[in-house]
């Protein structure tokens, strides 16, 4: 007993002054807990949050998780299907629609980055048009502010499907921010404490490592991702709300009037039974059953198909930096032809961010509008950057396609790599023919000094409509 009372006395000596100080006039303020979330969703455009909304309804109402949503653009491009406004005015309307859609889910923390809606399939176009650096800084700052346990975003990769450059750019930006937000030398002004009473420039945030990242894909063939992450039923009934998850997700999506007013009109007149039928039919339903969240990576271990919150103890995570692998390029100084553009970028990106296991198309693929010019971006790495190089490119195309430029003998300057492109005119085909179209292969054979320097293959699906490359 005597020992115990001595121990208590020592404890009081140690801790009481600290506690008193914390209650005094000089209490140091902690983080604003209103802005701490469990899930941070980052998507490209107003209405893209619907990738995840059936799961978010579950997380908010039945798992009592806190959610914030960030849109990387305000969606000012594209058509206004409902009224006259375009461009910047359309973006103003879409911001309000997005806030309304989130409010219907109970989400009030909604931010917009400064990305400009960029209508191409090339993520590099989007990043260039947005200003990659400034938006990455904003993204890292919002992760440090909201301190999410998990992050949901678009899949960084090229697939036949909507394949919007803004979606991919968002996935890339968020993956970069996931890896950077806990690094104290990255955007250090966000982490610096006050230097004066009314500090205006320094943010006084702290480093933060989200624990897991998941992706949603807009590939036409979504079934290929089954089992690549946890699947959650869209059709189950929420115990708290007594309605199926899809129903609440649908109610939220109805806020996007400038995007699909006809659907909204039609759906709002349907009975519960008609809606149930529409949404449970795999051909007309808006969400696959189950909804798969594609596992990106975890800093707290676990298997890809584990529950989103498995292994997660909320709070700051000590973190080991992921191993940064050098790409094979550095180790192999040989002349080599590879697919350039987004594909070259992703090869390096996956290695740098520890995402080698992320699924990719077995042969690179893309969907383009029939009758448009297909561009095949190429890069040739030079074995000797100090010598000029002669190469010969031969192109194989499907019947009826015409190589317009980029083939034959090419003299390359002395440099370490050269970016080239081959242009191929694709045929205009009737809509009925396109409905049955399958992807066809284009091959570029490269030779230098009479030896092969590699073959590049691209599977191309001609479609009635597609964003420009
Ligand atoms: Zn979108």
Task: Please give a handful of descriptors for the protein shown.
469 residues, 12 helices, 5-stranded mixed β-sheet, 17 strands, binds zinc ion, globular, disordered N terminus
Task: Explain what you see.
By secondary structure, the chain is an alpha/beta fold. The protein is 29% helix and 22% strand. Helix 3 runs antiparallel to helix 7 (245-253) and helix 5 crosses helix 6 (165-180). It starts with a helix and ends in a 6-residue tail after the last strand.
First-residue to last-residue Cα separation: 79 Å
Give the strand line-up of the largest sheet.
3-2-1-4-5-8
Low-confidence stretches: 1-5, 7-22, 319-330
Strand content: 15-25%
The general outline is: globular
Note the total helix count.
Answer: 12
* Residue share in helix: 25-40%
> Which sheet architecture does the biggest sheet show?
6 strands, mixed
Average pLDDT rating: 90
Concise structural overview:
This protein is of the alpha/beta class. The chain has helices spanning 2-23, 53-61, 87-104, 123-130, 132-146, 165-180, 245-253, 261-268, 272-280, 328-331, 341-352, 431-435; strands at residues 39-43, 67-73, 110-115, 150-154, 212-216, 231-232, 291-292, 294-298, 336-339, 365-369, 373-381, 389-396, 402-405, 408-412, 417-425, 440-448, 451-463.
